[in-house]
Amino acid sequence: MLRMPTLPDKTFSILYSFRFEDGRTKEFTIELDAQTLNLVRRNEPSPREWTRLQYAKCENCQLSPDHEHCPVALNLVEVIEFFSDAHSFEPAQVSVATEERGYTKKTTVQKGLSSMMGIMMPASGCPTLDKLRPMVRFHLPFSSPLETFYRSISMYLTAQFFRMKAEKSADWSLDDHLHVYKDVALVNRGIANRLTVASKADANLNAIVILHSIGDGIQYFIETELEELRNLFKAYVEE
Q1: Sign of CA dihedral 78, 80, 85, 88
Q2: 94 in any annotated domain
Q3: Strand, helix or coil at 138?
Q4: What is the span of the domain harbouring residue 36?
Q5: pLDDT digits (tens, 9 = 90+) for 33-63
Q6: Structural domains in the chain (count)
Q7: Is residue 4 part of a domain?
Q8: I need a surface site. Which of 17, 67, 95, 97 has the fewest CB within 10 A?
Q9: What is the 3-state secondary structure of 178-217?
């Protein structure tokens, strides 16, 4: 039975467990600061050459040269090295435990890995990915594209509400949301370049490709004016 680890009240955790067809299992506990959603590291990960900031640096990197290592790459070391030999479509039963509920799905390594990376990357301290951090608190494992788009749009519009309350300009047209994902796409590309060196097989790289495809889907979703959701909101629109 999958159990949540006991952690201090100032943190919360998400536990990912992979069970492979040959009987092997591997667990990853993602511990997060409850207030900031920063990834909490109990043990400092061992730096690798491919984690150095200047190694395949993202073209839109906002970090100063004072940062010796890319925080996203550094936090992914254990995951990347464990799945270095894994193939994208290798079957796995992936279980996810949060404080509220648990999820289990028979899926592929790349999809389980992509879901887990979708938490770790925004919580790592990359200024570009920070804008996706609210979604970490409301993580939905194995979500469909439509569910992910809805969560992303909801997150962005909530951010505009807080901007309005802070007497700052608010973007209710979602135009700037497209720019957020264009910046995220450049980070995904930079991380993918690192993983081509750090991985022998393709699961790690294709997990990033899945995350990248979400940004492309968001763009289409906004350009079609959220048409797939329109009928759900008739009670708010029609007199």
Answers
A1: positive
A2: yes
A3: coil
A4: 11-130+140-237
A5: 999 999 998 887 788 999 999 999 999 999 9
A6: 1
A7: no
A8: 67
A9: HHHHHHHHHHHHHHHHHHHHHCCCCHHHHHHHHHHHHHHH
